[in-house]
From TrEMBL:
Molecular-function GO terms, alphabetical: pyridoxal phosphate binding; transaminase activity
Quaternary structure and interacting proteins, as annotated: Homodimer.
SUPFAM superfamilies according to UniProt: PLP-dependent transferases
Protein name stated in the entry: Aminotransferase
Enzyme Commission number(s) of this protein: 2.6.1.-
Annotated ranges, domain Aminotransferase class I/classII large: 26-371
Family assignment from sequence similarity: Belongs to the class-I pyridoxal-phosphate-dependent aminotransferase family.
């Protein structure tokens, strides 16, 4: 019999949409966050050289020392934060880092406070360790940025963690330093721990990026190579662990992860040495795509109400169109455009569709034309 824990895990609807879209001909994919850029050349060359050098054995569970040092140097260079490399745990993707954080922090019945909307998989990470989810509602009129006071009102004696994402999936919101500092204070007062997913760092357009580590050492900070470096299939991430949790997280990693691939870790070092101008160029390309899609959504008469500041997503309110958001997503798919229904991302997003602009401008233009033609036939 399937365990109740497994039964409670909900599907990731974006992946269901992708599967359906792949069965159709000539579909524009705006449903998944899959960068269309190739990794930097040096990353690929380093991986090949590493394979040829025979770097295919196990590494330490927490990762190769040279990669952990490179990650620590990244925080010093980007944010002026001094991180002990011993606090860095390298993981096969960022999601395993979140699992390690939840497993280290959450006992059965403990509460984890997260935003609504949120990344679709967050509640399932809480459920799989038998935790309870509490949410704070975000508002489009405020750019989907969290209020510190809302988090303060949501925490209680059973709260063990505050889970945040900036730049955020699915909204593209970016938390400023004042908000991060406030959340760190709320967590400290509640004897809870911030867990901050920063995997979209490096992809902010209209806001300065701050890491939670600027404001507290008592936080789990997640990041990785999938988004900024277009290395989704390489499965390489990391988590910065509070000093008191280093040994526990290392034991968990030894047992459930073993290690990230050896040669991919070498490629990670090369990625962190990528010249800034190359990354800036990619970020500006995403900004142009964002502006193109924002203008289109507003032209369709849909309620956007904000401009995403980072990542490569936006949420559009489709409650004025016939049916619910699932119906509208089906209608768009019939027109050859795949998007993700907002129900994937929480109750507050149930009237929304998420559009990803992690695809080239020509494809986005084609998607816009198809939706233009479709909405011209829809009575509102």
């Amino acid at each position: 019999m399937v365990s109740q824990r497994a039964a409670d895990v909900t599907p990731f609807i974006a992946m269901d949409v992708l599967e359906r879209a792949n069965e159709l001909d000539d579909v524009i994919h705006l449903e998944v966050g899959e960068p269309d850029f190739a990794p930097p050349d040096r990353v690929i060359e380093t991986a090949v050289d590493s394979l040829r050098a025979g770097h295919t054995t196990y590494t330490a569970a927490r990762g190769k020392p040279e990669l952990r040092r490179a990650i620590a140097a990244h925080y010093d260079r980007e944010y002026g934060v001094d991180i002990d490399p011993d606090r860095v745990v390298v993981t096969p993707g960022t999601s395993p880092g979140l699992f390690l954080a939840m497993a280290a922090l959450v006992d059965p019945g403990d509460e984890v406070v997260l935003t609504d909307p949120h990344y679709a998989c967050y509640p399932n990470f809480v459920r799989v360790v038998d935790g309870e989810v509490r949410t704070v509602t975000l508002r489009a009129s405020e750019g989907f940025r969290p209020r510190v006071d809302d988090f303060a009102a949501a925490v209680g004696p059973d709260t063990s963690a505050l889970l945040c994402n900036s730049p955020a999936n699915p909204t593209g919101a970016v938390m400023d330093g004042e908000t991060l500092a406030g959340l760190a204070e709320v967590a400290a007062d509640a004897d809870a721990t911030p867990v901050v997913d920063e995997v979209y760092h490096g992809l902010s357009y209209d806001a300065a990026e701050h890491t939670m580590l600027e404001y507290t050492d008592d936080a789990f900070v997640l990041n990785g190579f999938s988004k900024r470096f277009a290395m989704t299939g390489w499965r390489l991430g990391w988590v910065i662990v509070p000093p008191d949790y280093v040994d526990a997280v290392n034991r968990l990693a030894q047992n459930v992860l073993i290690c990230a691939p050896n040669f991919v870790q070498d490629a990670g070092v090369a990625a962190l040495e990528t010249p800034a101008d190359r990354l800036d160029e990619i970020r500006e390309t995403y900004r142009e795509r964002r502006d193109l899609l924002v203008d289109a959504v507003e032209g369709w008469g849909l309620d956007l109400g904000y401009t995403p500041q980072g990542a490569y997503y936006l949420l559009a309110d489709v409650s004025d169109l016939p049916g619910d958001a699932l119906d509208v997503a089906d209608l768009f798919l019939e027109a050859g455009v795949a998007v993700t229904p907002g129900v994937d991302f929480g109750d507050a997003a149930s009237d929304y569709l998420r559009f990803s602009y992690a695809t080239d401008a020509d494809a986005i233009e084609t998607a816009i034309e198809r939706i233009d033609a479709l909405l011209a036939t829809v009575e509102r």
